[in-house]
Amino acid sequence: MIKVLKPGLATSVQDLGREGYYHLGIPPSGALVQYALSAANHLVGNPVGAAGLECTLIGPELQFQQDALVALSGALMSPRLDGEVVHQDTAFQVRAGQVLRFEFPKAGARTYLAVAGGIDVPLVLGSRSTYTLGALGGFQGRRLQEGDELPIGEASGTGRPGNSLPMALRRSVGGDITLRVVPGLYYERLTDAAKSSFFAEPWTVGSEADRIGYRFKGGSALSFQPREQPFGAGSDPSNIVDSCYPIGSIQVPAGLEPIVLHRDAVSGGGYAMIGTVISADLDLIGQMQPNQRAGFVAVTLEQALEARRIYKKRLKIMSGLFAG
Amino acid sequence: MAETSPIRYSFGGDEHLFAEVSDSMSLEAFFKGMAVTRAVERLALEGVLDVCLANASFQIRFDPDRIAPHVLLDAVQTAEAQAVAERTLHTRIIEIPVLYNDPWTHETLMRFRDRHQDPSGTDLEYAARINGLADVDAFIAAHSGAPWFVSMVGFVAGLPFMFQMVERERQLQVPKYLRPRTDTPKLTLGHGGCFGCIYSVRGAGGYQMFGVTPAPIYDPAQQLAYLKEHMVFFRPGDIVQFKPMDRDAYDRAVAEVDAGRFALRIRPVEFSLDAFLADPIGYPKTLQEALA
After folding, report:
1. Per-residue pLDDT reduced to its tens digit, B250-288
2. What number is the ipTM of this complex?
3. pTM
């Protein structure tokens, strides 16, 4: 068991997510930074899809009730075990009774904790991930609270303290971020001026930035071409007849502040989407803090697929390293 | 009348194929989207993760490591060319009891009055007035007078979007709140644009609020008999008939829900699009008779 002494801001159980229920309004969920959870799992000898903890901005305070092998990957949150510094991206042994604490991230927004054996909550619709809006999965369908006791599964025994991720496979977090976007969906509804200002101007992450979506501010308002609104679409030019929203899609309600949906997305609605952040860059969003600067750059579908190949290749090298 | 223009396709990044059947809402567009998505589901394509039907559009979520985007697009366009839009539908009609003008949505709408178009009234009074109906009772009579089609499930888990089976001139239309609320009671009947909905869970929302139903429609614990098969009750193509209830009946129903005994009236029915289009006033009455 892991006992939650303090829950932190928004700590939840996540694995790599559940597919196949988005058509019922149930989004994939799962770690926003899939690479970091995968790395932490490899370091402790878990299958890549084992459930860990996603710790956001203000991390939890956790007391281990049993010996455990643990690894952390992602945002730099100055983890300390009974006051002793522990290192990111390196597995370490925890003794029963020891307490793990974090500080506000120096860089990034989310760090992932993997424990050998995984967090052993029940599978719901094929995943242990928490979907908070639907009170589904994870630990009782919600973020962690003080006093929760998290069960740990049976360890594979292949993880070793000191297992460390090679520098070449570590991903830096923080700094200015450029998100690659495939324009499309209702992009052609934007005026030419809005099309160019969206990509040319700098944006910053707003305070409404969570697992559902990230809101951006600071750029010019985006105007849509005037039209007689189709029946059922609603009166604002940014409205459409309610449709499905891709994960990573960018909507701009009333043309004001772009919102990029993430893995706990609302599955559909009535705001025109102007493009989609490519799958290889979704991890970058998960590491963004409020007020961090960001820009958007247009890429083709072919470029998106090439970026995905590079991302997947790193994951494959990582799993090859820890296999057997 | 027929939707003859081809579907507009656009990739949503490298993991989604988005398809707009029509930019305006109609039952024709919904039926065409349903026919194509069913044809795509029958193909059981490797790498297709989810086929999501919406009101007048659909989306396919896929894994591009397992199916190349353009291979998927070709397959879907072939399915589109071959799919004959189904004009009849074997489905079910479900009676949903509603306490209109209830105290919980009333408390909520008063709390968020500064975000509403008409801060001096209620959502029902506003909706009645802008739809040219005499009063709230007339609005409730129109809302519960004809059945509704579930044309999409989503936004949040298990939330049905519904489109009423009346001619376009009689369709109830209301704008969303000027600014979305941060709270909506669970199982609120909402309405935005031409769509009705039932909020499956408590949370944010922008639709006007008219009442509440005691009937759970989403429950991960699957307590009630009609939720045993799946935690999400509604599917696109379901037909819903609202039935006004009073406070006593509502309280009794809630007690039955709490005791795990609550049941919904559900009957099989066959819907014919052509029969509806030929007689939009008379035909829905024949569907309602299935509930009698």
Report:
1. 999 999 999 999 999 999 999 999 999 999 999 999 999
2. 0.96
3. 0.95
How far apart CA A13 and CA A30 sit, in angstroms, is 8
Residue among A152, A142, A138 at smallest CA distance from A65:
A152
Residue B61 has its nearest CB partner, among A22, A25, A268, at A22
Domains by residue range for chain B, with CATH: 8-86 (3.30.1360.40), 90-289 (2.40.100.10)
CA distance A34 to A57: 17
Q: Among A59, A41, A43, A54, which Cα is nearest to A153's?
A: A41
Contact B16 A279 (CB under 8 A): no
Query: What residue type is assigned to position B19 of the chain?
Result: A
How do residues B211-233 score in pLDDT, each as one tens digit?
999 999 999 999 999 999 999 99
Q: Tens of pLDDT along A217-263?
A: 999 999 999 999 999 988 888 899 999 999 999 999 888 899 999 99
CA distance A39 to A53: 13
The full set of domain ranges for chain A reads 2-170, 177-312
Instruction: Give the gap in angstroms from C-alpha B87 to the nearest C-alpha of chain A.
Output: 22
The pLDDT value given to residue A324:
56
Residue B52: C-alpha distances to residues A221, A272, B85 (Å): 31, 17, 17
The CATH number of A177-312 is 2.40.100.10
User: What is the C-alpha R_g of chain A?
Assistant: 20
Residues of A whose CB is below 8 A from B25: 230-233, 241
